[in-house]
Structure formats: structure tokens, C-alpha cells
């Protein structure tokens, strides 16, 4: 229904150099935010509490006016335009349906004012969307007789009938129980593919972000740290913040230093020393303090002759198909993910090794060296 104007090259939403402060400038909620959102995008704004994701979404929606920067929707500068004139639809955590109206009445509410559609066309659109959401048999019921997930579907449907340029969703599933939440995540992703309308989804839950997003925007301190696919943010984090924020169980970090040796550099810490094959930036100095980081998935129980360091098993946490093992290595917690039932839960010393080339080195400010 949209993007059939023949316009090419222009994203559906473009945010340029957005900056928003509160309390006369003392709180910088977001800064230097640049983002392009295309028709096929499922964008997730992800980050810890207070990182600026909601403020960014509210600036897109028009609920918040940025201090500077612009918000362009379908090629039109909308920066100062009222929320209702932006052709965007919101879905929030709290459902806020009209309790006295039927599901049909709730779905149709946004269309009631429209003079563009005939009565029959409105009815048809509402019924199509109810079918798409699997609530066509609930149309004549009141919201109070629906389950939480069905109510959230009605609220989504109410946004869908408007055929907006994009959907903005602020933690829409955080009030649902874990199982239903998973199901809604699958449904919304599938729905987005069919609607061909971009979605911008705010969450602080990295597993939710990885499950639904194809473009994950990771924010910290009001600034975008990385934009990438789930694969990229997991496997190629640009800095230590992203490496630590993404992944469960979380990445292992070990304070280390780099020492120059004949062929290049050796990484050293109180557990092991590791000659490095990788090229390091020319500015790296001898003795430079760095952080060595490796995901638990890439620490393995060593075969004879392979040991890089050892650790004592503290806890084995079954994950179903694999186990997470918590080890103590020289007073440091090391997390490893191993095939199920390969490590006994006793306090046993294990020889460990790492998968080569699966680690990262970060400098003191968290920037990636290798
Ligand atoms: P959360 O997940 O907790 O909602 P968030 O990442 O969405 O966090 P924002 O709500 O965008 O973060 O907030 C970013 C920063 O701006 C925070 O420091 C917050 O306290 C501040 N902030 C947001 N809205 C306001 C406001 N209306 N007045 C003052 N400060 C605000």
C-alpha cells in the first residue's frame, strides 16, 4: 500500500544528527543519532535503561521535539510536525483498548473519521486484518473477554488498519509472560514480512532483539554504538560495550597486556600467554593494557596437549542441548558453553582451550584493536 509512489533511493524514515537534551541541557538523552530505515527493515533499538532508545523513538514519532537534527519520513522533513500528521502508528506496552467497544469497534476506531473509504471498504479492511492476526472470531467480543496476547493483537491491528508508513513499538510485549512473548515475537516478525512496512521496535532485552530484529541498533549513553544484523553484533562487535551487552551467557573478559616479541605481539595475563597472528594497529605500544574477550561458546575442554589454562568447575547449568559451565580460574569467573553432560558438576579441575581467531582485543577505552 505504500512506497508505490515510484520514489527511489529515499528510505521510509531517515534521522540525521539527532540531538535531544532534557533539564536545560544537563541530560543528553541522545546525540549524533543517524539512522536510515527502509521498507523491508525490522529495526530494533536496543540498550540498557537510560541509553536513549525511547527518546529516539519519541523523536521519530513527534512526541518529542529534538534540539537539533532532522526526521524525514517518505522524503518529507517532518521534524516539527505533529505526531498525528506523520503517518506513523504506535504500539505501546500498555494496550489501552476501549473497554466498551467490541474488538471490531476498536479496530475500526481510527478509520471512523476517514472519508476516503466507504463503509464497506472499512469493514473489509478490519476483517482482513483480524484474519491476518487470527482474531476474526473475536470481532464481536469485548476486549475484557480476550487473553493478554489477543488484546495485544487488537492493539497491533488498530495500528495496522491505518496503513501507516511505519510502525513504532515501545516494549510492546514486556507485560506478557515468557511463552506468549516468544510467540508474539515470531508473529510480529512474520507479519512485518507480509506487510512490507518497516517496524521500529524498542527493547532492553537482547534476546528479544536478536530474535526479531534484522537491523539492531545498539545504544549507550545516548549514542549509537553499532548498527548490524544479529550475526554481526554477536560475531563482530565494534567495541567492548557491544561485546558485553550482546550474548548470553555473557562474554568472558580478561585484563591483559600486549608485549612486543620478535615476530609481533604476545598477549599476556595471569592465566596464559598467547602469541598473536593478527595485525594490530600501528599505534599499539609495548606493555599496553588491553582486555581480552572471548564468548563462552568458544572456550572448550582441552584435549591432551591443547591446554591453554585451567579452571575449577563451580557450577554446571543445564541449557537443554548444552550446558553452561562456571569455572574459577585464578580467582576469575570463566564461563564456557559445552555439549550436554560432558562436564561433571563436581569441583574438578578442567584443562581449557580457546577456539583460535574467535577472540577480540579491546583497548583501555573499549575500542577494538583486533
Ligand atoms: P528505558 O529503557 O529505561 O526507558 P531508554 O533507553 O528508553 O531507557 P530514555 O527514556 O530515552 O532511555 O532516556 C534517556 C535519558 O534521558 C535518561 O537519562 C532519562 O532519564 C532522560 N529523560 C528521558 N525523558 C526525560 C524527560 N522527560 N525529562 C528529563 N529527563 C528525561
From TrEMBL:
<keyword id="KW-1003">Cell membrane</keyword>
<dbReference type="InterPro" id="IPR003439">
    <property type="entry name" value="ABC_transporter-like_ATP-bd"/>
</dbReference>
<dbReference type="InterPro" id="IPR012340">
    <property type="entry name" value="NA-bd_OB-fold"/>
</dbReference>
<dbReference type="InterPro" id="IPR008995">
    <property type="entry name" value="Mo/tungstate-bd_C_term_dom"/>
</dbReference>
<dbReference type="InterPro" id="IPR013611">
    <property type="entry name" value="Transp-assoc_OB_typ2"/>
</dbReference>
<dbReference type="InterPro" id="IPR017871">
    <property type="entry name" value="ABC_transporter-like_CS"/>
</dbReference>
<dbReference type="InterPro" id="IPR047641">
    <property type="entry name" value="ABC_transpr_MalK/UgpC-like"/>
</dbReference>
<keyword id="KW-0067">ATP-binding</keyword>
<feature type="domain" description="ABC transporter">
    <location>
        <begin position="13"/>
        <end position="246"/>
    </location>
</feature>
<protein>
    <submittedName>
        <fullName>ABC transporter ATP-binding protein</fullName>
    </submittedName>
</protein>
<dbReference type="InterPro" id="IPR027417">
    <property type="entry name" value="P-loop_NTPase"/>
</dbReference>
<dbReference type="InterPro" id="IPR003593">
    <property type="entry name" value="AAA+_ATPase"/>
</dbReference>
<keyword id="KW-0813">Transport</keyword>
<keyword id="KW-0547">Nucleotide-binding</keyword>
<dbReference type="Pfam" id="PF08402">
    <property type="entry name" value="TOBE_2"/>
</dbReference>
<dbReference type="GO" id="GO:0005524">
    <property type="term" value="F:ATP binding"/>
</dbReference>
<keyword id="KW-0472">Membrane</keyword>
<dbReference type="Pfam" id="PF00005">
    <property type="entry name" value="ABC_tran"/>
</dbReference>
<keyword id="KW-1278">Translocase</keyword>
Amino acid at each position: 500500500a505504500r512506497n508505490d509512489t515510484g520514489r527511489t533511493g529515499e528510505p521510509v524514515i531517515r534521522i540525521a544528527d539527532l540531538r535531544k537534551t532534557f533539564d536545560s541541557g544537563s541530560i543528553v538523552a541522545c546525540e549524533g543519532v543517524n539512522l536510515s530505515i527502509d521498507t523491508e527493515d525490522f529495526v530494533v533499538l536496543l540498550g540498557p535503561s537510560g541509553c536513549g532508545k525511547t527518546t529516539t523513538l519519541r523523536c521519530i514519532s513527534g512526541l518529542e521535539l529534538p534540539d537539533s537534527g532532522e526526521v524525514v519520513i517518505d522524503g518529507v522533513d517532518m521534524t516539527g510536525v505533529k505526531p498525528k500528521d506523520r503517518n506513523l502508528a504506535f504500539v505501546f506496552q500498555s494496550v489501552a483498548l476501549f473497554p466498551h467497544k467490541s474488538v471490531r469497534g476498536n479496530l475500526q476506531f481510527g478509520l471512523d473519521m476517514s472519508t476516503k473509504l466507504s463503509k464497506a471498504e472499512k469493514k473489509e479492511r478490519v476483517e482482513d486484518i483480524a484474519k491476518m492476526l487470527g482474531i476474526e472470531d473475536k470481532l464481536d467480543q469485548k476486549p475484557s473477554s480476550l487473553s493478554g496476547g489477543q488484546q495485544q493483537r487488537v492493539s497491533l491491528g488498530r495500528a495496522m488498519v491505518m496503513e501507516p508508513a511505519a510502525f513504532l513499538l515501545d516494549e510492546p510485549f514486556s507485560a506478557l509472560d515468557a511463552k506468549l512473548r516468544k510467540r508474539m515475537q515470531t508473529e510480529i516478525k512474520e507479519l512485518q514480512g507480509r506487510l512490507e512496512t518497516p517496524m521500529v521496535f524498542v527493547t532492553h532485552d537482547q534476546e528479544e532483539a536478536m530474535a526479531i530484529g534484522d537491523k539492531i541498533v545498539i545504544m549507550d549513553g545516548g549514542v549509537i554504538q553499532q548498527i548490524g544484523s544479529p550475526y554481526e553484533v554477536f560475531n563482530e562487535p565494534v567495541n567492548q560495550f557491544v561485546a558485553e551487552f550482546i550474548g548470553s551467557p555473557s562474554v568472558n573478559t580478561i585484563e591483559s597486556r600486549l608485549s612486543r616479541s620478535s615476530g609481533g605481539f604476545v598477549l599476556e595475563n595471569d592465566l596464559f600467554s598467547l602469541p598473536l597472528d593478527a595485525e594490530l594497529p600501528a599505534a599499539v605500544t609495548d606493555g599496553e593494557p588491553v582486555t581480552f574477550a572471548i564468548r563462552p561458546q568458544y572456550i572448550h575442554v582441552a584435549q591432551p596437549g591443547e591446554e591453554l589454562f585451567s579452571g575449577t568447575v563451580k557450577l554446571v547449568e543445564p541449557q537443554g542441548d548444552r550446558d553452561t559451565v562456571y569455572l574459577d580460574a585464578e580467582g576469575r569467573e570463566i564461563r564456557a558453553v559445552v555439549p550436554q553432560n560432558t562436564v561433571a558438576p563436581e569441583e574438578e579441575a578442567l584443562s581449557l582451550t580457546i577456539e583460535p581467531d574467535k577472540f577480540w582485543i579491546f583497548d583501555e577505552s573499549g575500542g577494538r584493536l583486533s
